[in-house]
Structure formats: C-alpha cells, structure tokens
Write a structure and sequence with these properties.
Oligomer: homodimer
Radius of gyration of chain A: 24 Å
Largest sheet of chain A: 7 strands, parallel
Helix content of chain A: 40-55%
Strand order of the largest sheet of chain A: 10-9-11-8-7-12-13
Largest interface: A-B, 67 and 67 residues
CATH superfamily of the largest domain in chain A: Aldehyde Dehydrogenase, Chain A, domain 1
CATH topology of the largest domain in chain A: Aldehyde Dehydrogenase, Chain A, domain 1
Number of strands of chain A: 16
Shape of chain A: globular
CATH architecture of the largest domain in chain A: 3-Layer(aba) Sandwich
C-alpha cells in the first residue's frame, strides 16, 4: 500500500484527470449505494467506529504531520486546536458514528400514496441524492461526520478539506474506506481529494454530470468562492446575524435568560445572537437589567442613541454594527418603536438564519413566526437551539439559508430526495 | 396609460436597469405576498378569470400583432398555432385559473411539530419561495398558467416569454396586474419583462439577490442556455427519453395497450415513449403483436438485430437511436436478455424522466420501482401519466429531472419551502 505522501504526489501530476476519475468512481458507487440495505450500511458504520479506535496510532501519527507543518507555518493556537485529533475528538467521532447508526434510514420510505380516480396508485419514494461534494476547512473530524451521514443516506461523498489537514483527512479516509471494503461496499463511496490547491476546488465545482450537490462549510470567504464558481447546486449559509426582539409584553427574567444564553453560551457560532432589539415601551426598565448581565459577562454593547441614553456603558453603534456577525462578546442593541419596526430591521439586516422574539402576546408571537423570513423563527427560546441535533434531526450536515431544497439545519432527510412511483393494473391515458 | 408599444420602447432604452428595477419590485411584492390570506389570493384569481373574458377583445387585438409579425417572419403553421390565443385557449386559461382557486393553499401549513426533551415545540411551516423567474418560448398561455400558480403559492413571478409572443404576453400581464391592483395586491407580483433580446435573459439569470428560482420551459437549446448561464438555482428537464420494459411475465394485451398509449396518444411530449425494451424470452411472441399495432398506427420501428429478425418491417437501429427523443411516431425497440440488462440500458440512455415496466412478477416490479433512477417510475401503467394533473398535484408548473428540491412534476408545493418554527417557554441551551 502506498504511503499518504505517495498518494499526494501521484495526484499532483494530473489533478484534473484524477478529480474526474474520483468523481466518476463516486457516481458509479452511488448507483450501488442507493439499494444497500440499512443493515449493511449500519454494519459499515459500526466497523468504522471500531476502526477509529484500533487505528488511533496511525491517525495520530498522520495528524502529527499536519500539526508539525502548522506549527512551522505559524498557525494560531486556535487553528492548531481545530486541527488536533485529540483523544477527545476521536471519541466524539466514534460517538457520532454510533449515533448515525441509531438514526432511522430515510431511504426507501414511501409516503403520500394516493389512489387516483383511474385506479393507479401514486406515491413518493425517498431516494439518495447521489454524489455529495463537501468542501470544508480545518477540522478533520468533518471528514468522518459528513461521510457517516452521506453513507447512511445512501450517497457517495467526495471530500475536499483544507490543505492544513490533508494528512489527517487522508488517514481518516483510508480507515473509513477499509471498513467499506470489509463490509463489501464500494470504497469509492468515500473519497478525500488529495490535492491542496484551490484550482482543484474550481475544477470539482464544474463536474455537474458527476456531482449532485455541493455543501461548503467554513468561513464566508470560502463559501462565497464556492457559490460563485459552482455549476452544481450549493446548499450553504454565509453567516448568521441573529436577532432577539424583546417586545413590550416580555417577561424580563425570561428575556434576560434568553438574551444571555443566545449571546454568551458560545459566541463564536452562527446561531449566536448579534443584535438585540428592544421595544421602546420597556427600554428604560429592561435595558438596565440586561446591561448589568451583559457587563458581568464581559460583553461589549454597541447601542443606538436611545440605548446609550439608558446605558452609559454602551458605545455608540455605527451603521456597520447593524447586520455585523461579531462572533465575539459584542452585542449591538437597538430600541425600536414597535413590532413592525423590529420586523423591518430584521428584513434589512438579518441573514435568514435564526430570529427570536420574547413576548407574552399571543398575537405578536404568531405574527413574528409567520412573517419573519428566516430558516428558524422562535418564540421565547434561545437562538442557540437552531441546530440539527437540538431540533431532533439527529445530526447535522450543515445549515442552509437559501430556500431551495432545504432551509435551516440539514439532517439525513435533506441528503435525500423523492421520486414518484406508480402501481398500475394496465391503465392508459385517455 | 401607455400603449404596449410605448412600454417596449421605454424598456429598450436601458434594459438592465429596468430588469433590475422589475426584479427588486418583485422582491418587495413577494415580502407582502407571503402573508396574504388565501381568500385574497383566490379573489384575485377569480377576478382574473372574469377579466380574461371581459378583456378578450384587447387580448386578441394584441395577439393579432404577434400573429401578423409571425406570418411576416414566415413562422410555421404549428408555431402560429401555438401563438394563437383562440377562444379555446382563452377558455382553457380561464378554467385553469378556476382550478387553481380550488386547490388548497400550501402556505402556512405546519407539520412535523414535535416536543423536544427540554419542552420546546419544533415544527416546520410552509412558506413561499419568494420570486420565481419563468423563461419560456412561444405559448402565451404559460403567462397566465404560471402566474396563477405562483400567486396561489404566495410568490412573485417575473415572466420572460418568447419575442414572437411579446404583445400577447404584455397584454395578458396587464389584465392580470389590473386584477391584482383591484384586489389590493401589489401589481409587481406579476410582471412580464418587455425586452426581447437574449441579453435580457442573461442579465436576469445573474440577479441572484432578487430571484430565488428559475424555471425554464421550452426546447433543449433554451434550457441548456439557461442552465449554463444562471447564477440562480434552476429547476428543469432537458428532455424525456422514456422506456417501457416488457418483461417475460408480462400480459401481452396489457403490454400492447401500455406501449401504444405511451407512444401514440401524444407523441410530441416529454412523457411519451421513445424506446421499448423486450425480454428475449417473449420477443418472438410479443414483437409481432406490438409490431402490428404500431404499424397500423403509422409508427416507424427502429430495431436492434434481434427485433429486425422477428419484425421484417423494422429498420435497423443505429447507436444514435438509443437515447433519442424522437417526439414523433418513431420507436426504438431492443431485445434484452433480462431485467438487469434493461436496467443497465436505462442507466445508460435514460433521461431520468419516466420509466415503466410491464410485468406480472412481484419481485421484478418492486425491484424496478426501487432501482430505476428516474423522477417517475411505473409498474403496469402508461408513461403518459407522468404529469402533475394525473398525479393529483392539481396543476403543474414544470417537470424537474434534477434531484435538488423537486424531482418529477412540480405543483404548488414545489413552489414553496419550509422554515423551522419553535414555540418555547423561556428555554435556553445548557
């Protein structure tokens, strides 16, 4: 068996030819995957969970090459931490695999079967999408998490991770592929593209005959690059600029809890709160309460004029603060005259990710749910719940803020589609 | 009010600016459309049905301009017939509008509401997609049919029809817009782009911030042009190369009925049969029966060697006949050794549109349904049933043979998506 260094060298000779070959192998594998039994897919997933443990030394030694190169390149500690396949990260990948085993297999489900007037039975059967292209940045655990979901949904996956994780990704792929082969599944169903320059991504994005869907995960720059260069449908979200609107009927304690949890529990993620909107009727009562809580959590406040008048600690917000994804302990705060103004603000500055209202008004809650155009809209709950696991999808392959096919967190079902099936008894059209 | 000639002239001055303005007006209108009541949408649709009758003279006089220009340009009779807004076509548009009124409104439906362990209720609410761009060729009735479906699903629509139908399309749009205004709905929800050159299409396909989905309808050339130039998701099918496989357990009479109906009932449409596959065990019995029926209907047969040996009337097929969309009274016929070979043939030459098997074998029927990758897969029924109306969707805005978002005939539901909604009682994430 060739070393991973040899694999990389071999690919570099003709990256385009190799990418085409990989994607057409993936397509062939996908055709067979679509009729695999759930048992077979689960048995491969369980093998993978065992193999990650058994092959831990191999994985860690390849991971060490990436870490060494990263240290040499002067990557930040945060970046190195993301790269690191620690025992904890390996355990979490193993748990993830076992959780995917436990999820129901969406493929083959038949629904909405109706009998038409002429007697034909028409229904919809859930089927895999085919080949998924995953383009991501530094975390090598995505390789395993995404491959597991795609396998369970009957899809092939082509993975193109960040160059700084190339050894780790290829090592993980080799372990997974061995398990596929041992389970008598075409190993081309899970492939990591061993090319590290961006031209390979561009080339991959043009293979619309081979790849059915592209899911990019990473910073806004990567995602825009993918969206602008893809001839294949892309499910993506650029960013999460989430708002909480505290209306004039809100319970203050509940509002403080929700705002604090949304902002502080994990500020660096896309479902964290970025802008707080407060109804002017309650601004002078509520702002001091939330101001104190935010201050004690070390959150910087950038407020509108009215906010600053009530909260002297707040810095004056500039136009760029509205709609800004801080991903940090910074919160923009604006006082608005009413629900309509809050809705208008969200239309203008929101990112269609997650929006929440805190209210005790039945009418306002219902109106907010109905009228806000975002992939997740909440009444009296933290924006941090916007997540496949929290919503009960089991696991999440990504979040979409575009409306075609999927809107919001995407789980196994979103990796499938449905075809029409017809049972007839010889009917013809008149 | 300006004449339609004036509208066209005004637009031609700065087509790009005008297209941008129209699409941004459409987007603004869409925001309001999403919360319109079903009653209001239905009342606008009923007004439109009445107005098409009341404004028949205006519509026909504008249509006459297109017909005169078409005759001058030497359009074929078939083309002129497609352009013609005859009494029959106008009646059918009126009936179509009334049928859309009768369909249930998909918007606002909440489904899959579950209570999560922490008590939050998570469900999915159906919402409009936003702005639909429809790009089509000569039939002006598409203007009304598509606008009605988009309106009912709460979307705005930007229509860009063929240049040869420009007066008809603008006249119809004006009638529809007057009805929107009378029903107190933003008239920008239905707009025909009054620019006839293709650069306007290209420009429209780049407005990804304004338009959510493009649906092209027309010949393969138009659809490829749209798919290759669009930065907006496109739902499309290039062509329909439909197969019927007559397996060795098929009832011959049923097979003859299904093959004849699939091929002959309307040969020029995408769900018509193009290639017949026959199990070799029954070839010598079945081929003479179907051969006689096809001959009496004037269908030319292009057969494989084995077919020609049994049916001397058949012409020898060439490679290009497999996978050819004849859209005419021509049928390719191939004898295959078994179901596997039939499935292989469909993988290689099919267009993922509609595929059917005629069989009395339970196992073969189930396997065909499961394994064939096409938007509609049928056992013992005519391929001609692959249609939104026949499948019970009510009406059809198009057919998709790509798997993202919709696969197969698309009705009202396919013009919507779903967002997550959450009802909480103050829950936060731990």
């Amino acid at each position: 068996m060739s070393t991973i260094e040899e694999t990389i060298k071999k690919m570099a000779i003709d990256a385009k030819k190799a990418a085409r070959k990989m994607s057409s192998d993936a397509k062939k594998a996908a055709r067979k995957m679509s009729s695999l039994s759930t048992e077979k897919k689960n048995s491969a997933l369980l093998r993978m969970a065992d193999a990650l443990l058994e092959q831990k030394e191999f994985i860690r030694s390849e991971n060490e090459k990436d870490l060494a190169a990263g240290r040499k390149k002067g990557l930040s500690n945060a970046m190195l931490d993301r790269l690191n396949l620690s025992d904890k990260v390996i355990s979490s990948m193993i748990n993830g695999l076992r959780e995917v085993v436990a999820l129901p297999d969406p493929v083959g489900e038949v629904a909405e079967m109706v009998k038409r007037p002429n007697g034909i039975m028409v229904g919809r059967m859930r089927i895999p999408l085919g080949v998924i292209g995953m383009i991501y940045e530094s975390r090598p655990n995505v390789t395993v998490d995404a491959a597991a979901l795609c396998l369970k949904a009957g899809n092939s996956i082509l993975l193109r991770g960040g160059s700084e994780a190339i050894f780790s990704n290829l090592a993980l792929a080799r372990v997974l592929q061995d398990c596929l082969a041992a389970a008598d599944i075409d190993a081309a169903a899970i492939q990591v593209i061993p090319v590290t320059d961006r031209s390979a991504v561009t080339y991959m994005l043009g293979l619309e005959e081979q790849i059915d869907l592209i899911i990019p995960r990473g910073g806004e720059g990567l995602i825009r690059f993918v969206a602008e260069n893809s001839r294949i449908p892309v499910l993506k979200h650029y960013k999460g600029v989430c708002h909480v609107f505290v209306d004039d009927t809100a319970d203050y304690d509940m509002a403080v809890n929700i705002v604090m949890n949304s902002k502080v529990q994990r500020p660096g993620v896309c479902n964290a709160l970025e802008t707080l909107l407060v109804h002017e009727k309650v601004a002078s009562d509520f702002l001091p309460k939330i101001g104190a809580a935010l201050a004690s959590a070390g959150v910087e406040i950038r407020g509108c004029e009215k906010t600053c008048a009530v909260l002297p600690v707040a810095r004056q917000a500039v136009e760029a603060d509205w709609g800004m994804e801080f991903l940090d302990l910074i919160l923009a705060v604006k006082v608005v005259p009413d629900l309509d103004a809050a809705l208008q603000h969200i239309v203008r500055y929101g990112s269609q990710h997650t929006e929440a209202i805190v209210t005790n008004s039945y009418a306002n809650g219902q109106r907010f749910l109905r009228e806000v155009d975002a992939s997740a809209v909440m009444v009296n709950a933290s924006t941090r719940f916007s997540d496949g696991g929290q919503f009960g999808l089991g696991a999440e392959i990504g979040i979409s803020t575009t409306k075609l096919h999927a809107y919001g967190p995407m789980g196994l079902k979103e990796l499938t589609t449905r075809k029409f099936i017809v049972y007839g008894e010889g009917q013809v059209r008149s």
